[in-house]
Amino acid sequence: MGNRALSGLVLAVLAILLAPAGAEAATDLHPLLAAPPTADWIDVPPTSTNLIGDFTAHDYAAYVVGNPGIEFDLNLYGFTRGYALDWAQRGSLNLLVERVFEFRDAKGARSWYTLLRLLDKIYGSYTSDIPMPASVPNSYGALFTLPDGRQQSWIEFRKGNLAFEVVTDSATNDLSATAVTQAATEYASAPSQTQVPPGAGQAVNNWLRSIGIAAGALVVALAIVITVTIVLATRRRRPATFLIAGPTMSPDGAYWWDGQRWREASIEAPRTAPRSPDGAHWWDGRTWRPLPAPRPPG
Questions:
Q1: Domains recognised in the chain with CATH numbers
Q2: Are the C-beta atoms of 159 and 147 separated by less than 8 Å?
Q3: Which end of the chain, N or C, is surrounded by fewer C-beta atoms within 10 Å?
């Protein structure tokens, strides 16, 4: 065995021997989000403009509007990591979004939850509260009616060192009951404390973090100034416009533009348009359409 190989073996053995005793693997956040309520909810594929899968404080700030204030707030509260999933309901414009935010401790989750709740309350499209069941304590729900008539339900809750967000969006229906059901499922299965990755959540030193969290209301007020309120409120953007990109469609939805001419949507679908997992539908930027049967050659 060569000296280089022997040195590598020694280093590997030393790493094992010097590893902290009893160290546990970080909790997998993905299973903490509830599966969609029915089989007709289809996974939204990741794109450059949506937030799906693992995300950092920087990723979330860039997703909201790229404002560094949001990133600072998360780091101040000891944010470690997050996970997000989106679904679109086949045959409709309905959307379902779920996110979980992990923090070093329960204080950080409580501070983030308090900030989100305050910002939701002062958002201009706020319509009414959504009653939350006793099975989901430390939670609240808010219904929003956007200028185009769409209805969005936002459920926020916390448990231990976790904060959750469940959002539904529909052009025709109030899906608040669906959002509440998803939240109740997540709360029931969420642990009281996750195993945080070693060293995570320490972007802001403990002294500053303790001062910030102890300030309570002052931190919330400062966060509003930093984020200019509208920053977080802009996450109320119509999800259908940024969750899945689609081709340029004619106003009546009957044709799509291939870069040179209009093509009839009922006869052929764009090759680049996202397909549903079963390959039976394609996404036009607003809704799922049945995939036309292949045209015979000639």
A1: 25-241 (3.40.1000.70), 246-298 (no CATH)
A2: no
A3: C
